[in-house]
Write a structure and sequence with these properties.
This protein is α+β, with helices and mostly antiparallel strands and 306 residues long. The chain is built from seven helices and 17 strands. Helix content is 26%, strand content 30%. Strands 8, 9, 10, 11, 12, 13, 14, 15 and 16 form a nine-stranded mixed β-sheet that branches. Strands 1, 2, 3, 4, 5, 6, 7 and 17 form an eight-stranded antiparallel β-sheet that branches. The protein is globular, with a radius of gyration of 19 Å. It starts with a strand and ends with a strand.
């Protein structure tokens, strides 16, 4: 239901008409930064809620600055454009929104300087990213890069070749997702998700310095765990063997939402079922993103005027 449109060259046009030239710099050199943003349809309220819209655009503009892009937009302007786009599409189902800031000059040459930049936004219907209730993971042979190689905190298009190697390796070997390690061998993250484990009643997740993306879903889940469930949340390095010893494990991300992990490297996590902490957090998270918990209504931007 609904029609896909794109914000492209400062106007909203049909998605099929949004095209870039074959010499576009970002296509050849990965010189772009992007966001993944979820719009969650609440059928009872007949409303679409976009999750943490401002936080996503704040991160996008920060990444654009690092890549020497001077985008002529404020966070509020980007939020308004996105709302106008979704209203135009008229979706009444879960959607995925992809803003991309990119070097738009049609020229060759490896660099960030002396290049034009532009921004596009695409919205499409999209259900579950990992289409299983629990997923089987492997520890990938591909490692996350160090910050002074290619900063993992940026959602830059170029770095996602690392993620693509990881995902395909996992799937071709019979797993649902791969878990990457840091250059020094600590647990980092999945190909498109942050990672949490539960040990001895504590929720543990790798710190920012362990080559992870500073995930918006990750931060939201941490806050829910502390404030709503009273859990102690630790940001610390996780050894690989702790994945095998964990009582529970789950992944978080805009696309993946909160996805329980039942096996790592053919070893059951806990008893191989969804653990109690994971189950509570998953229910709480989904109620939150659907706009059903008033306390966190500021995280959810309604699209339609009811």
């Amino acid at each position: 239901m609904g029609t896909s449109y794109a914000y492209f060259k400062k106007q909203i046009i049909p998605l099929e008409d949004a095209k870039i030239g074959v010499m576009t710099h970002a296509l050849h050199y990965g010189t772009g930064v992007f966001e993944g943003i979820r719009g969650n349809w609440n059928n009872e309220k007949k409303q679409m809620y976009i999750f943490r819209l401002k936080e996503h655009y704040t991160r996008l503009l920060t990444g654009a600055k690092v890549l020497k892009m001077n985008l002529p937009y404020t966070v509020d302007e980007l939020c308004k454009i996105t709302l106008d786009l979704i209203k135009k599409c008229g979706f009444k189902e879960d959607i995925y929104i992809r803003p991309l800031a990119y070097k738009s000059s049609e020229t060759f040459g490896v660099r960030l300087h002396n290049l034009d930049c532009d921004l596009l936004i695409v919205a499409i219907p999209w259900g579950r990213y990992i289409d299983k209730d629990t997923c089987h993971c492997c520890v990938s042979t591909w490692r996350r890069p160090d910050d002074n190689v290619m900063p993992p905190q940026l959602k830059s298009t170029g770095i996602y070749l690392n993620n693509a190697f990881t995902k395909t390796e996992a799937v071709e070997n019979g797993f649902d997702e791969g878990i990457m390690l840091t250059p020094d061998g600590h647990v980092s993250e999945g190909s498109g998700e942050n990672l949490f484990i539960v040990r001895k009643g504590k929720l543990i997740t790798p710190p920012i310095c362990d080559s992870i993306l500073d995930g918006i879903t990750r931060n939201s889940v941490m806050e829910l765990a502390e404030k709503e469930l009273g859990l102690e949340v630790l940001e610390r390095s996780i050894d690989r063997v702790e994945l095998y010893m964990a009582e529970e494990c789950f992944l978080t991300g805009t696309a993946a939402h909160l996805t329980p992990v039942s096996e790592v490297d053919h070893r059951k996590v806990g008893n191989g079922e969804i653990g109690p902490v994971t189950a509570k957090l998953k229910d709480l998270y989904f109620e939150t993103i659907k706009g059903n918990i008033a306390k966190y209504s500021s995280w959810c931007t309604p699209v339609y005027n009811l």
